[in-house]
Amino acid sequence: MIGHLAARLTRKSRSNFYYAFLALPKPRRDALYAVYAFCRTVDDIADLDDERGTDRAEQRRALDGWRRDVALCYEPGATPTHPIAAQLAQAVRAFAIPRDALLAIIDGVAMDLDRARYETAEDLYPYCYRVASAVGLCCIEIFGYTDPRARQYAIDLGTALQLTNIIRDVGADARGGRVYLPQEDLRKFGVSVEDLQAGRYTEQFVQLMRHQAERARQFYRAARENFPSVDARSLVPAEIMGRIYFALLEEIEAQRFQVFGGRITVPTARKVALAFRCWAAARFGSAGSPGGRAA
Question: pLDDT digits over 67-86, tens only?
Fold first, then answer.
């Protein structure tokens, strides 16, 4: 029943991650559902103030509660009471999911509570690590790997995915009080926070976003360079995620960063096709990696 809860949450989200999970055998898929449901549930805590006026102290207490639940996941004989935490505990005991990575995810959500702004890209990267790369480090333990380079691959790919998310959601995030684009980039291209909040689509904005897209592409390339080909079959789900998000970046670029209107997505049929191609490439010994051709 608990596993069904995590799976329903994943399917309900219509996440790009769902298509990657389909490539896994059931025990690994259930563990991924649990990690993803944990991430979604913890992340939702940061949005509670927008939805019902929850104060910061209550949000921080909720995050502390999840830190305690994570600790219970690693305590022999202990079982968290939260149903998603209980499923996470099963995943932790079945696979070598690192505690530090789970705690980093919670710390990333805590950063959102402060709605901090980032002066430089280097200032932004620790946030990307916590909310995305740490998720990747959890995932590769479930996928399985033998080459230690898989960890750097997960870190680079997670950063690329998060930078893609930031590009796609820049308008909605700004209206919600969160600006992830480096402040020095805003100044360089002559775009203000108020411009983002108002959804002002200008040539300066397009140039700013091209700069962000190239930064994301650098991390996709780094992930490609660190991709451990010996683990191609086991890392198919990661490759599916990378290919779908790279296709999303390409779609945003093709629409000249028209991200202030409806949310840009990759069509479901294309996601399925990309997933199949990744599976077939690994199965027949010609695996690619994100940052190459995404279609």
Answer: 999 999 999 999 899 999 99
